[in-house]
Amino acid sequence: MRVGVLAIQGSVEEHIDKLKRLDGITPVEAKDKETLKRVDALILPGGESTAIGKMLNDFDLKDVIIELYRSGAPIWGTCAGMILMAKHIVNDDKVHLGIMDIKVRRNAYGSQLDSFTTKLSMPDVSKDEIDAVFIRAPYIEDVGENVKVLSRYNGKIVAAREGNLFATSFHPELTNDLSFYKYFLGLQ
Ligand code: GLN
């Protein structure tokens, strides 16, 4: 299975390193249309959603990602990637891919200095609590009826799934826990 990591900006290498640890997975740095067309699943990494969103437009990559979503390929947005997928962003007038029925708030936990690590309970994903790193993270304020909430932190939604779309506020590529990767790729 070829798993792409959108390689425009943000924590690309870290995701690739995690994917290398999974049997049967070929990680692929994807930054052009041809590569994106040939992946079986895609990770949209954390970084800066405004910058990545602008590049998606400039390099004309939006349609190929939307097509991938429509074909049923699993797509997972972590942090900025979650913002890119959202249909609604409460504190930004831009929508990027607009494919997931979630309403997100950017920088919901304050500035870079307010970044933190915690443990989250996520029964669908792992029987143990998962370490989660939040860096200028968004959270989800509201979800559409087809979205399943996977985890909350202090009452706010920080992980969710809508069919083949997965979103996390935190950065699983920065911890040693592979459970969300396995959940995303159906390897549990
Ligand atoms: N604050 C960033 C944004 O709004 C997301 C931060 C991250 O991906 N770590 O795009």
Number of beta strands: 12
Q: Gyration radius, to the nearest Å?
A: 15 Å
In whole angstroms, the N-to-C terminal distance is 15 Å
Low-confidence stretches: none
Q: Give every kind of bound small molecule, once each.
A: glutamine
Strand order of the largest sheet: 2-1-3-4-12-11-10
Tell me the series of helices and strands, N- to C-terminal: EHEHEHHEHEEEEEEEEH
Q: Helix content range of the residues, please?
A: 10-25%
| Overall spatial form | globular
Number of helices: 6
The biggest beta sheet, please? 7 strands, mixed
For the residues shown, what is the average pLDDT?
96
Which structural class should the secondary elements be placed in? alpha/beta
**How much of the sequence is in beta strands?**
25-35%
Architecture blueprint of SSEs:
Elements: E1 2-6, H1 12-20, E2 26-30, H2 33-37, E3 41-44, H3 49-58, H4 62-70, E4 75-78, H5 80-85, E5 86-89, E6 100-105, E7 116-120, E8 130-134, E9 139-143, E10 148-153, E11 156-162, E12 165-168, H6 179-184
Parallel strand pairs: 1-2, 1-3, 3-4, 4-12, 5-6
Antiparallel strand pairs: 6-9, 7-8, 10-11, 11-12
This protein binds glutamine (GLN).
Could you characterize the architecture of this molecule?
The chain has helices spanning 12-20, 33-37, 49-58, 62-70, 80-85, 179-184, and strands at residues 2-6, 26-30, 41-44, 75-78, 86-89, 100-105, 116-120, 130-134, 139-143, 148-153, 156-162, 165-168. The protein has 188 residues and is α/β, with parallel strands linked by helices. The chain has a seven-stranded mixed β-sheet with strand order 2-1-3-4-12-11-10. The protein has a three-stranded mixed β-sheet with strand order 5-6-9. The protein has a two-stranded antiparallel ribbon with strand order 7-8. The mean pLDDT is 96. Bound molecules: glutamine (GLN). Glutamine binds next to helix 5. It catalyses: L-glutamine + H2O = L-glutamate + NH4(+); aldehydo-D-ribose 5-phosphate + D-glyceraldehyde 3-phosphate + L-glutamine = pyridoxal 5'-phosphate + L-glutamate + phosphate + 3 H2O + H(+). Keywords: Glutamine amidotransferase, Hydrolase, Lyase, Pyridoxal phosphate. L-glutamine binds at residues 47-49, 106, 135-136. Pfam families: SNO (PF01174).
